[in-house]
Every structure is written in structure tokens, then in C-alpha cells.
Amino acid sequence: MNLTASVSLLILGVVCGCYTAFRYSKRVRELCAMETFFTRIYAELSLEQTATAALFAKLSMHSCAKTLWFVPRVAESLAQGTLFPQAFADCVADYQKTSAMTNEDFFILEKAGETIGAYDLMTQLSGISSLVQSTAVQIEEAKQLVQTKGRLMRSVFILSGVAAAVLIV
Known about the structure:
With 169 residues, this protein is mostly helical. It has helices spanning 2-48, 52-59, 64-67, 70-79, 84-96, 103-116, 121-168. Helix 2 (52-59) runs antiparallel to helix 4 (70-79).
């Protein structure tokens, strides 16, 4: 009986530690997808001057849309006639409920909605360029958190599971 409980606590510590580390690395993946998303928008706007609905239709087929699942939803909303600012804000709000990104990261996405919704192409391009730089800073910060807190929390949970298992036995 004690052996079962101690093994269960050990497994619980491992699972909690790995899940915590996964959440930190998930943020890095989401931010990298967001940087790709902004880069694709910049390329589409600067080379083809694509309209917003067509832009999101193209982006919804891009690999970043798998991670940033709000992108296809924005494309669907725009196809149904919803205005861009409302469609983008609603879809990002839904995405925020399941994302590992921080409020600072979502502030960048909020700015992206304002920038993409601008009517002047030069304003859009300069704004998106700035967003790419801001996202790069957030990615570096997130990578450092994975290295420090992610590994630390995983180790703490695993050691807690080991300690609890030893105390029971």
C-alpha cells in the first residue's frame, strides 16, 4: 500500500513538473508562430498589397495558423461580412482563454489588430515591422524563462514527488 502511494506521488511530481515546463515552452512556440504571422503579413502587404479578407484567407492556410488558431476564425468572420476590428478582437479574446502567452504578448496582438486595421499602407508596414521587433524581444524573454523557470519548476516538482515517496516508505 505504501509503495503504491509513494509511486503515485512520484509520478504526480513528474507529471506536474513536465506540464509546467511544457507551458513555458508552449509560449515560445506561440510567439515564434506570431512572429512568422507578422512576417507573412508584412510580405503580403508590401509585395501584393492584399486586402484584409484575402490576407487572412491566405494566412489561414499557412503553417502558423495551426498554432495561432484564431487566424482561420478571423478569415471566416471576415468572409461572413464582420468588420475586421470586431472579428479580430473577438477571435483573439477566444484564443487568449487557452493560450500560454502573457498579457504583454496579447498587448502586441491587440496592437496588430489596430495596425492591420489601419487604412494607410505605410502605417501598416511600419507598425508591423515594429511588432516583429517587439515579438522578437518577447521570444528571447520566453526562451530565458524556459531555461530558468521551466527547468527549475520541473525539477522542484520531481524532487517533491521523490521526497513525498521517501516519507511514505
